[in-house]
């Protein structure tokens, strides 16, 4: 069992209440930070920790904090991104449901570090039941003097509110989130200006993921240096992994960064192996937008080294033979799964979720979905495969926000690694559209 | 001030100028096209992506190139910035891609579209598009809708530039139309049946880069290249009264705002001027209007010989007939 | 059309909840409360938001009705047409499909004799496939109002679920509960 920074007490009965949470050391970081540390010192600890944004981009959190503009007389905001919508990702929902005070404590300590006096948790509207849990916990925190005026006699004031979204993946993009929080359509903003300069209500704003913010209390309590000792290289600390798909034990696992992928899939401590005694076919290791890798490349890098659950190792080989850590959504495919169908499914998702603001994404996501739909339903042509690669390339990098890339990568990667399966679908439409039909060429080659 | 180099041409511009504006100062072929950006409208730009350019040097201080292509209409110049537009393969390819994207769901109904001949999408496709068609799926279509008695919305042609929304927001009192839905199902609309009705509503027609918003008083009356644009004015209590008349023979077929070479209006005009004043006697004619934004209209060059015609207020019908034709 | 504009009236509890949300934002930024208010409106008026309801929301926030329409049509949670008593929002995205979401959707279609987007003849159920609901480890799953129903991975589970829902009234939202 590795170190549990976020989930040590998560299964303690009643941990969602303030009383039990405090009994297990909860809110110590608030007291320590507000009474004994300057905001800058908290920022320094987070920088030292090497903590990277846990929402998907993996940008160093302390660095992001230090970019925050601090003009006189202008309020600053901390906004927690709880719009967890990347397919495969359910760690934040799980964490907030079980341990709401963990996030609230992180919000208080982080808001203090950033000099924010009003902070928001923007949660996707579908998670209204979690919003209720958070609001209940926030009310407890207000009653205990942990929120509101003069927190713990420190002179620091903070109001914390939860705001629901309305059903839009794009609001996980930080500027779309801010638009949505302002009661508008979730159209991402043109950047610059970045939120650190002009964010919520045109004021300097930091947007951080739930897991990122929830890691801050431990860092404040134990020191950034201590956090940095966990993990490997620039992948410090622990990470919540959402494991889903065809495995025996789907769920959320807190791992020390550096666990070998093979161990993560097959050990009973984590996924417990592939269900129904089947073989592993492929893994999408970081949420639906990151490249899919076939079994051989997810277990070993192209150089033949064990692939590890770290930012660096998962991306080893670039997009040619590697993938990304993303949000830590580990989606496992068994041998009975059809890559073409899955790629069409993901493509439909991005088509459905494109905000429609910029032309390459608005038009390109729909185009890819329609072509993939045709292939999946037995009406593909051989030239469709190259067409998809080309359309994906036309979207990638040319859009306002990263949704375009997120839509392009899974299509490009699926074709890169499973081209023969696409070709088989097109050449044998009858066989391919039969119920339960799966191309086995690649697997047979592997086993042979 | 900032010195910026675009396609090898150096120019000094005010700080805070965008790359696109700097390029327009240079002028000519190196100016990136723009389908959504519209100078007179605050907040416009960044959406269509046709103006993407490559910044090969960020500034004199930070000489690194920018990793991705940037939208020139919203990216500010830095001192020492080096930009490539027509000289960069990546830019030209990206632009070709985006033109293709803009066209896959476009009906390509130019032969029956009132905008034909003065359509920015037509110009863009002509200059940057490819003739081959790779899209074989069903195209997105919408029904035509009347936004009141003067404006028709043909959503199928729309490229979602948002200009009409910004126009309604910024020059009219109460906006009743907007962008509904999302993704490629997003559309301009009023949601419930509603009339876009205020003194300046007609300006949405002028800002529309395509034939999505057209003037019902002009609909199917003529092709724009058969008409003669004349600058004219009247004493209007609501707007500046400075307009372009589009005439054929003695008939005023259409009234629009005056637009510059980038199709940007010089001054927004009121609906009375636009829709109700269709007699030459309503206007003081100043002279021919040179249109150089649209290839088809300019091709006629009929106005060249009349450049020095004296300005005659309320040009009598007989005089007008004598205007030399090419 | 359900009501005329004069009949759209939020309950006192709903108005109090609306005011609570408005109070979360700085002066002049009250439009920020639009999404929460639309959720409240949908819960108040039969699970969907009619143009009249949206006009009322615009009036409360002192914004133009089009600003409400623009937002309500952008976000998929807001139903713009009348719906059945229970809207079954079934996840159709990749990770749930790996565990049988397609089968769940097909079974519901067959048992309720409806297609996607339709409401059953008895007005009890509307089938609305949705994208990922952050419940990938417990798929296939669906959402009804505020609650998740997970691991519905067999025909028996579907039968159990439907039988339960037929007997079930909606939970009163927290804000509407008498204290």
UniProtKB/TrEMBL annotation, chain A:
Keywords: 4Fe-4S, Flavoprotein, FMN, Iron, Iron-sulfur, Metal-binding, NAD, Oxidoreductase, Quinone, Translocase. Its EC number is 7.1.1.-. One of its GO terms (biological process) is cellular respiration. One of its GO terms (molecular function) is FMN binding. Its cofactor is FMN; [4Fe-4S] cluster. SMART domains: NADH_4Fe-4S. Residues 340-385 form the NADH-ubiquinone oxidoreductase 51kDa subunit iron-sulphur binding domain. Pfam families: Complex1_51K, NADH_4Fe-4S, SLBB_2. It catalyses: a quinone + NADH + 5 H(+)(in) = a quinol + NAD(+) + 4 H(+)(out). Belongs to the complex I 51 kDa subunit family. NDH-1 shuttles electrons from NADH, via FMN and iron-sulfur (Fe-S) centers, to quinones in the respiratory chain. This is NADH-quinone oxidoreductase subunit F. It comes from Pontibacter diazotrophicus. The lineage of its organism: Bacteria, Pseudomonadati, Bacteroidota, Cytophagia, Cytophagales.
From TrEMBL, chain B:
One of its GO terms (molecular function) is oxidoreductase activity. It is found in: Membrane. SMART domains: NADH-G_4Fe-4S_3. InterPro entries: 2Fe-2S_ferredoxin-like_sf (IPR036010), 2Fe-2S_ferredoxin-type (IPR001041), NADH_UbQ_OxRdtase_ferredoxin (IPR054351), NADH_UbQ_OxRdtase_Gsu_4Fe4S-bd (IPR019574), Prok_molybdopt-oxidoreductase (IPR050123). SUPFAM superfamilies: 2Fe-2S ferredoxin-like, 4Fe-4S ferredoxins. Its main location: membrane. GO terms for cellular component: membrane. This is Fe-S-binding domain-containing protein. It comes from Pontibacter diazotrophicus.
Automatic annotation (TrEMBL), chain C:
Binds 1 [2Fe-2S] cluster. [2Fe-2S] cluster binds at residues 91, 96, 132, 136. The lineage of its organism: Bacteria, Pseudomonadati, Bacteroidota, Cytophagia, Cytophagales. Its cofactor is [2Fe-2S] cluster. SUPFAM superfamilies: Thioredoxin-like. GO terms for molecular function: 2 iron, 2 sulfur cluster binding; metal ion binding; NADH dehydrogenase activity. InterPro entries: NuoE-like (IPR002023), NuoE_dom (IPR042128), NuoE_N (IPR041921), Thioredoxin-like_sf (IPR036249). Belongs to the complex I 24 kDa subunit family. Keywords: 2Fe-2S, Iron, Iron-sulfur, Metal-binding. It comes from the Bacteria. It comes from Pontibacter diazotrophicus. This is NAD(P)H-dependent oxidoreductase subunit E. Pfam families: 2Fe-2S_thioredx (PF01257). NCBIfam families: nuoE_fam (TIGR01958).
